[in-house]
Amino acid sequence: MREEDQLQQPLTPEELMQELRFKATELLLREEWQESVKVYTQFINLCQDQISVKSHQNHPDPDLLTKLQKSLCLALSNRAEALSRLRDLTGALKDCDQALKIESTHFKSLVCKGKILLSLNRYSMALDCFKTAVLDPQASGNLETLNGYVQKCKKLEFQSRTGAFDLSDWILSGFRGKSPELAEYTGPVQIKRSELSGRGLFATKNIDAGTLLLVTKAIATERGILSSEDSGENARLVMWKNFVDKVVDSATKCERTLHLISTLSSGEDEDKLESPEMSLFRPEAEEIGELNEKVDKVKILNVLDVNSLVEDSVSAKVLGRNSDYYGVGLWVLASFINHSCNPNARRLHVGDHVLVHASRDVKAGEEITFAYFDVLSPLSKRNEMSKTWGFHCSCKRCKFEEEMCSKQEMKEIEIGLERGIDVGSAIFRLEEGMRRWMVRGRGKGYMRASFWAAYFEAYGSEKSVTRWGRRIPAVDIVVDSVAEAVGCDERLLKVFMQAFRGNGVSLVDMEKSLKLGRGVHGKVVKKQQALRSLLDSGTHDA
């Protein structure tokens, strides 16, 4: 046989496997994830074929089969690592499970699976993986890292189970370093049909102001600094495209993500959509079986048009370094929260997480709602703003004010304020009118919220306060009634705190300010010193 023919002879399966293993390992070390997946797939297929062939021989070699099984186990584990780096978590998890079927305590597969489960917020299962991995002799060189994962899983599992979050230390540090690691949490809420629009989120028990309702991590976010109006608009368009691409990519790589997105409305046939079970949104939700759903980019785009949230909004506060950025994201469970002009919830943005809490007391069965726009505005302006959102608000407050605004005196007060009459005079007429019309309870809060700009100006002017004195209600009375009607707001805090700052603050006033603060920032700020820090910054920024 000629030398050229010898050189052209095909490689034996063993030789080809050796070559593929070497090439795949090199690509993995160079962090060329996509290429390493391709080569590992070739190796895995060949290895599985060889195991099948060898095991069906008349006298199979047990040592050779064991060797092939170990090679297959390691290759699956390495491919899982590469797939997880590419955020193909579904594929990575399947590879880990296959590897662990071959060797149930395979160290590398356990660690890889633990990391994937942790990123999927399945804390208990991730903890089991890391606990088993710690017992392996190979763990000795990585014991500190593995114990770190164990402690992290325990902490997040506790948060997820109890809703016990505390951002105090991070706030007191001046938001230094990375934002705190947070678990996903679902509190006393459920999804049902809404009288406001389609489906909504409802309280399953009585809830105090400041109580945490849910914590959820974004499917994807996109952030950027907007400089001027023109470039800002262009930047928004670029950010939106990047954001859509991220969501599509996440849905393509994770079946659970695709399924969660599929529960959201695309703006059509809302009445035909089912209300998903809350168990779907809990971190330890059971694994979803094989889905027949395909990624439909047009449908996802429609879903994002209806459900994406902007971080810097009237019902939200961004904590930490994100506050310098314009940000948009998709938080699935929070997307079920409808608008109301008498909202009862606010949200904090911390890193990629959103924390939703009650901004006033909520009764069992009451719908959880956000303010999509500024609700400390008259009905006419709110109607204009709701049009830009593509809906007409028919909440209790709007219905109440439609009746009130039909009164001639109400029209005169509104026109007078537009023409610049004395705000104290306008407030006096409004308060006298409500007394004559026998407006009580939340009705007073609704009306005062509608004319908040006038109250804000009056209480901020020493001249108005001196001139009108007791003929207009005290600051704390107005703030309390507005907060009870439309939830707490930083502007209410600002007026309340500035009114008492010069005269010294009593214990009663301090307690009231802390209660308002919990309505704005939630009970996730446990230490009073941290809450006061936020209150002080809020009164300067509001």
UniProtKB/TrEMBL annotation:
What PANTHER family does this protein's entry cite? TPR DOMAIN PROTEIN (AFU_ORTHOLOGUE AFUA_5G12710)
In terms of superkingdom, the source organism counts as Eukaryota
SMART domains of this UniProt entry? SET, TPR
Which Pfam family, an example, fits this chain? Answer: SET
Per the UniProt entry, what species is this protein from, by scientific name? Answer: Populus tomentosa (Chinese white poplar)
**SET domain span:** 187-373
- Record-given protein name: SET domain-containing protein
UniProt cross-references to InterPro entries, sorted A to Z = Gramillin-biosynth_MTr (IPR053209), SET_dom (IPR001214), TPR_rpt (IPR019734)
